[in-house]
């Protein structure tokens, strides 16, 4: 890598091939010889930035709808998704700390330029898909809290770039603290609402054990069966951009790479940080599903969009017990829900922008200021949201809500495309002795569960692709539209598998170059 003293650096957009997120790379000092908790506190933060992606607005409707339709059946899916997330994020952080490269840089260093561009475009689409969910979530929260018309609320979300500009001036530890604070707001809101609802905790515990019915294609409730509900939760939980982000922000702590013990300590405490924060994400997602079961009467909420959920929290006829009904009359339940939604969207703004910079620098060696990166991504993301609002402006409120909800759900299909291309290279590189060394390469159990996770998630994502494509035709596609969706899905599956084969081949050749280089 170069030293980034390229004369082109003076422009807004310039060449970059240096350290990952160089402005914050290695900037956080960590104590040595201190107690476990003090040391853990100094390493804590990157895990929170990653955990945000596991509780963004895209998770909300899938978890709440799953609970309302199938009771606690899908709790086991949230648990399995969280455990897989912990495994993948551990590998991502370890890759960054040990190799001093983020995932995008590591892939690009071992693949061709043309493949790097293709993978960059795929990952950009995934980031924009999550950004669409954040635009919708934040705009709806502004509309619900302040009665700002949706079109104006969408435009206001563009100005969160000013928030990002402010945050870049205050230091990375303070950004981590703000993210943790917003996570605590979200956690408090849902703990409060679930505590009021007095859920069946024995049913919750039983739901954590998977059964054949968990992935069954029947019964169908509210247009969704358990398999579709499970795929929705998995798709909204394990996201590719989090792997790129973690491999970069794990390098913010100052590490002596000549001291193997210091590297090992950083890996160990980064893993603790990640697992603790992802446990909070698991709790939030579990609370969302429990809300669907315990707060609402089964099947009572016909509108699963954020509008419908907000309205339901103040509608005493759909709530499940007397205490909730009494509190709902004050409007506090629905207001808290909107506040949590706004906090979730703002959190994802910070992490999405950092991830965008990581993949742009890593895959195509191009860099721009974070505020400009955010502005470009957000302006592109608001276009489909504005189109959706404009096209349904003359229709009923429910039609408008459904259109936004459908757009948010449909945008998540890009995550299914991009996920295998981050998971598979991550697993292959962290399995490699040449990449990681004897001490830091994956153990046998990590390899085993890693392969099971990668294969299972790739299979489930591809399996759910025909249904995801069919949803683009509306809630009730015709047989001809269903056939068309299947054809499109199968063509895409073939293309994805072919691109995966290309990626594996390039990585294999790249690894051989690493081996031959180390032998010289």
Automatic annotation (TrEMBL):
TM segment ranges: 40-57, 69-93, 114-144, 150-168, 175-195, 227-245, 278-298, 318-343, 375-393, 413-432, 444-462, 487-508
Keyword Secreted: no
GO molecular function terms attached to this record: cadmium ion transmembrane transporter activity; manganese ion transmembrane transporter activity; metal ion binding; symporter activity
Subcellular location: Cell membrane; Membrane
NCBIfam families listed in its UniProt record: nramp, Nramp_1, PRK00701.1
Stated family: Belongs to the NRAMP family.
GO CC annotations, alphabetized: plasma membrane
Primary localization class, coarse: membrane
GO aspect biological process, one term: iron ion transmembrane transport
Annotated membrane topology: Multi-pass membrane protein
Keywords, ordered alphabetically: Cell membrane, Ion transport, Membrane, Symport, Transmembrane, Transmembrane helix, Transport
Chain's role: H(+)-stimulated, divalent metal cation uptake system.
Name of the molecule in the record: Divalent metal cation transporter MntH
């Amino acid at each position: 890598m170069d030293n980034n003293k390229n004369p082109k650096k003076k422009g807004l957009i310039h060449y970059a091939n240096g350290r990952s997120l160089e402005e914050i790379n290695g900037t956080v000092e960590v104590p040595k010889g201190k107690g476990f908790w003090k040391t853990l506190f100094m390493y804590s933060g990157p895990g929170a930035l990653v955990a945000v992606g596991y509780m963004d607005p895209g998770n909300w409707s899938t978890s709440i709808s799953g609970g309302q339709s199938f009771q606690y059946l899908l709790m086991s899916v949230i648990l399995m998704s969280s455990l897989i997330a912990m495994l993948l994020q551990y590998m991502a952080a370890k890759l960054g700390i040990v190799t001093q490269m983020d995932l995008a840089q590591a892939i690009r260093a071992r693949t061709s330029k043309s493949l790097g561009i293709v993978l960059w475009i795929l990952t950009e689409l995934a980031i924009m898909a999550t950004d669409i969910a954040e635009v919708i979530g934040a705009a709806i929260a502004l509309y619900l809290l302040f009665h700002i018309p949706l079109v104006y609320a969408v435009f206001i979300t563009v100005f969160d770039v000013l928030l990002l500009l402010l945050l870049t001036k205050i230091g990375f530890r303070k950004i981590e603290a703000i993210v943790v604070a917003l996570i605590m707001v979200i956690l408090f809101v849902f703990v409060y609402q679930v505590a009021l609802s007095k859920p069946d905790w024995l049913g919750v515990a039983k739901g954590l054990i998977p059964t054949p019915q968990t992935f069954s294609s029947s019964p169908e409730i509210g247009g969704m069966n358990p398999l579709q509900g499970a795929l929705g939760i998995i798709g909204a939980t394990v996201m590719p951009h989090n792997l790129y982000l973690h491999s970069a922000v794990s390098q913010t702590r100052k590490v002596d790479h000549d001291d193997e013990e210091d590297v090992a300590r950083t890996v160990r405490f980064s893993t603790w940080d990640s697992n603790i924060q992802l446990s909070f994400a698991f709790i939030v997602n579990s609370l969302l599903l429990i809300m669907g079961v315990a707060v609402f009467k089964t099947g009572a909420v016909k509108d699963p969009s954020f509008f419908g959920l907000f309205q339901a929290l103040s509608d005493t006829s759909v709530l499940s017990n007397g205490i909730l009904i009494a509190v709902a009359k004050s409007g506090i339940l629905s207001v808290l829900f909107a506040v949590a939604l706004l906090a979730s969207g703002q959190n994802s703004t910070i992490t999405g922008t950092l991830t965008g910079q990581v993949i742009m620098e890593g895959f195509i060696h191009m860099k721009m200021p974070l505020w400009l990166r955010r502005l470009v991504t957000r302006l592109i993301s608001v276009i489909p949201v504005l189109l959706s609002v404009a096209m349904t402006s003359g229709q009923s409120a429910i039609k408008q809500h459904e259109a936004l909800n459908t757009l948010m759900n449909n945008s998540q299909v890009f995550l299914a495309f991009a996920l295998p291309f981050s998971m598979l290279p991550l697993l292959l590189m962290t399995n490699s002795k040449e990449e990681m060394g004897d001490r830091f390469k994956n153990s046998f159990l990590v390899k085993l569960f890693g392969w099971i996770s990668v294969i299972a998630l790739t299979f489930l994502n591809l399996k759910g692709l025909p249904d995801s494509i069919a949803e683009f035709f509306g809630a009730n596609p015709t047989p001809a539209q269903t056939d068309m969706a299947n054809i499109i899905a199968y063509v895409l599956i073939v293309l994805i598998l072919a691109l995966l084969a290309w990626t594996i081949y390039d990585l294999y050749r790249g690894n051989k170059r690493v081996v031959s280089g180390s032998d010289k």
